[in-house]
């Protein structure tokens, strides 16, 4: 008789500032290399059978996957207390059974990809400012945002305006605008004097 040495998967739910989102944390890795993926629709989740399965729950409206957690956003008035047991059971069973999280290599959001996307037609000064902003977002902002089940990525810098993308629980969060202006914008303006304003794509108010 062969002993089953497969590590049992544990899943716990963790609330975040967005009342419509819930972060499900696992004791196993879903996505390596510090990346994350955000699926706002089932159509966008073609590379992730795991996310597609989650969208089969009719109350799931968005799926965000990072290193060892998945953030699920609902579009139902049903309270999380009623939904969490079902989702926890599914996630645990799916991962323990070895179900595929992704097909191939997913298109992730990372600081490295953001740096690579800094446009070559920017001036040397703007390129340098963009890199400073990317480093600050990666080292100071992103870890805190991930704690809340979301992600922030650099989009562009032009004429003093930084544009970022908010993903996962941050998209649609009632406090996202406050966090963006009172927290992130103040930090960047203090550390990079050239920054005048921070605006976000992906925020649904």
TrEMBL record:
Q: Which SMART domains match?
A: Nfu_N
- Fetch the InterPro entries from UniProt: FSCA_dom_sf (IPR034904), Nfu/NifU_N (IPR014824), Nfu/NifU_N_sf (IPR036498), NFU1-like (IPR035433), NIF_FeS_clus_asmbl_NifU_C (IPR001075)
For this protein, the parts annotated as crossing the membrane are none
The organism's place on the tree of life at top rank: Bacteria
* Domain Scaffold protein Nfu/NifU N-terminal, first and last residues per copy: 11-98
Sample GO molecular function, one term: iron-sulfur cluster binding
For this chain, the family text in UniProt reads:
Belongs to the NifU family.
What name has this protein been given in UniProt? Fe-S cluster biogenesis protein NfuA
| Organismal lineage | Bacteria, Pseudomonadati, Bacteroidota, Cytophagia, Cytophagales
